Structure formats: C-alpha cells, structure tokens
Amino acid sequence: MQITSSAISLTVDDVPASSKFLADHFGYAVRMSADGFASLGRDDGGVDLVFLRRGIEVLPPALRQVHTAGTIVAFVVDDLESEQTRLRAEGVEPTLPIREEPWGERLLLVTDPNGVVYELVEWADR
To answer: Which GO terms label this protein's molecular function in UniProt (predicted)?
Structure first.
C-alpha cells in the first residue's frame, strides 16, 4: 500500500466556524467545500482536515448525530512561546497554557468554536 496523503474528518455543528478558525490561526486553506462539508489543507504537506456538519447524509446513520469529542489535533512547532504569543495577539486564549510534561514534551492547547481541540507541541531540550 502506498499512502499519498492523510486527512482527519471531524464532525461539528458549524463547519464554517471551524474552517475559519483553522485558516485564520493555522494557515490552512479550503481545498473543497459544499453545504455541510469543507476540506482544508496546507501546502507544506501537513495532514488535511475535513469538517462534516453533524447530521449530514454522507455519514453512516449511526454516526450522523455524533459530535467530535475527545480528539486532539496535534501540530509540532519549533517555537512554542512564539506560537502562544501569536495566538493571543490574534485573540485566541489557550485552553491550556504552555506546560512541560515529565517526558520532555512541551505543549499548549487551544479550542475552536465547535470544541475541536488543537495541541501545539515541541520537544524540550534534554
């Protein structure tokens, strides 16, 4: 098997709100969109994200009313402090400000208008 790209699909109530958050704060661009659907990507080859409106018929019946929960979309960055400063300047307050885990991971969390959680992470110097 050869994988040529990757995407994560997230079911949300307001597709435009999550799409705008991802575009405004993480440099994603809408690649395709329709009523209740948006696919966003980056030119640097990061993972694509797809937002589907809860209830949309493209989903199997058992999943149509399920809202994305418990999923964290993680982005590895080079300068976590700068990212936190940038996000705050853009009006995004961290859900969890920068902290360092015992295993050397430094992270911060932000949450979009639909409750989708994004983790920015960098590995601490040892």
So the answer is: dioxygenase activity; lyase activity
- Residue 29's CB is within 10 A of a number of other CB atoms, namely 12
The pLDDT tens digits for 44-56 are: 878 999 999 999 9
Q: Looking at the predicted structure, is the pLDDT value of residue 126 above 60? A: no
| Residues whose CB is less than 8 angstroms from the CB of residue 113 and which lie 6 or more positions away in sequence, other chains included | 14, 17, 18, 21
- Please name each of the domains of the chain with its CATH number: 7-123 (3.10.180.10)
Start-to-end CA distance of the chain, whole Å, equals 37
CA pseudo-torsion sign 19, 23, 28, 29:
positive
